[in-house]
């Protein structure tokens, strides 16, 4: 019996066979060309998408050269006159329209950071607290739907609800009350566009947070419950720390895109409230470039906006590293 045990102990354990071919798996990693031959069907399927990204995201960057030209469409980039940094003077000359667009952009960015960014986190926590998976899936399906509606449809829905001839005002007038001016009221414009963004995108944005919540070890909740932690304490000490990496990552990406605050949404409602409250950097570029013909100035504003977004991402990522988080990339 002892000899049998010793023989079994000395027998090497066979290498698992994940391929099902009867041969043990090779331990050494495959070379580049071997992986290329193996994965070439998938790479061929990805080529159209890669080509689109290269053409429209990287090759198009060459068009920023018109920021240094007195660009005329009928002359093209090659024949338009070079003016150096003259187009950038509008950034420092105190142009009232540009300063108004910059002020509105920063204010809307602040509102969206304070109210829109935390909304999917709160909603994800509420959905995660639902006991029934069927109810959770049904609620998620309803919440995801507005994301697939274009801004034309979303603005039309809000106009039908809150417009001067909308459902709410018709109801108020039918009962002898005065109507409420919301759609065309500049004082209510920022609250209106913030509520539109929350209604449209909050449900879809919960996907990432719900995925992170599903990966948190359930034993942590059980241990905290045994220690007497309430539901709020569990959220504060278990749930939010588990969500911290994805929150930091998305916040960094949000800062990089902070100066883009909804071109289509604002342009569709600009006529109703006027450009004084609705003009932002994106609509400024459109109104002065495409409509006004100041292509060089508009390109200069857009180029500076992109550079500012890049700097914000790098700075925020560095701060994340100092706080012990990975951020967008590792240090």
TrEMBL record:
It comes from Occultella glacieicola. Residues 102-316 form the ABC transmembrane type-1 domain. CDD domains: TM_PBP2 (cd06261). Belongs to the binding-protein-dependent transport system permease family. This is Sugar ABC transporter permease. Keywords: Cell membrane, Membrane, Transmembrane, Transmembrane helix, Transport. Residues 1-26 are annotated as: Disordered. SUPFAM superfamilies: MetI-like. It is a multi-pass membrane protein. The chain crosses the membrane at residues 42-61, 106-127, 148-168, 188-213, 234-253, 294-316. Its main location: membrane.
């Amino acid at each position: 019996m002892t000899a049998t045990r010793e023989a079994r102990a000395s027998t090497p354990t066979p290498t698992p066979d994940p391929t099902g071919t009867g041969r043990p798996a090779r331990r050494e990693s495959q070379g580049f060309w071997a992986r290329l031959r193996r994965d070439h069907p998938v790479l061929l399927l990805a080529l159209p998408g890669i080509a689109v990204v290269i053409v429209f995201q990287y090759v198009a960057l060459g068009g920023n050269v018109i920021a240094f030209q007195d660009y005329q469409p009928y002359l093209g980039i090659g024949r338009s006159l070079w003016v150096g940094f003259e187009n950038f003077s509008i950034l420092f000359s105190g142009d009232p329209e540009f300063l108004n667009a910059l002020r509105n952009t920063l204010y809307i960015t602040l509102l969206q950071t304070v109210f829109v960014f935390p909304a999917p986190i709160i909603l994800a926590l509420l959905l995660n607290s639902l006991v029934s998976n069927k109810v959770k899936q049904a609620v998620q399906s309803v919440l995801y739907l507005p994301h697939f509606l274009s801004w034309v449809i979303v603005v039309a829905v809000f106009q039908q609800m809150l417009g001067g001839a909308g459902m709410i005002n018709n109801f108020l007038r039918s009962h002898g009350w005065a109507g409420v001016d919301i759609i065309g009221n500049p004082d209510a414009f920022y609250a209106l566009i913030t509520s539109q963004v929350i209604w449209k995108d909050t449900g879809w944005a919960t996907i990432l947070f719900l995925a992170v919540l599903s990966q948190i070890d359930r034993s942590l909740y059980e241990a905290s419950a045994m220690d007497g932690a309430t539901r709020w304490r569990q959220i504060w000490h278990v749930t939010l720390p588990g969500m911290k990496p994805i929150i930091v990552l998305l916040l960094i990406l949000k800062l990089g895109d902070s100066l883009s605050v909804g071109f289509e949404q604002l342009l569709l409602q600009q006529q109703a409230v006027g450009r004084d409250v609705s003009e932002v950097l994106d609509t400024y570029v459109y109104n002065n470039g495409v409509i006004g013909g100041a292509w060089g100035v508009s390109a200069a504003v857009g180029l500076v906006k992109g550079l500012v977004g890049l700097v914000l991402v790098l700075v925020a990522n560095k701060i994340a590293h100092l706080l012990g988080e990975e951020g967008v990339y590792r240090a």
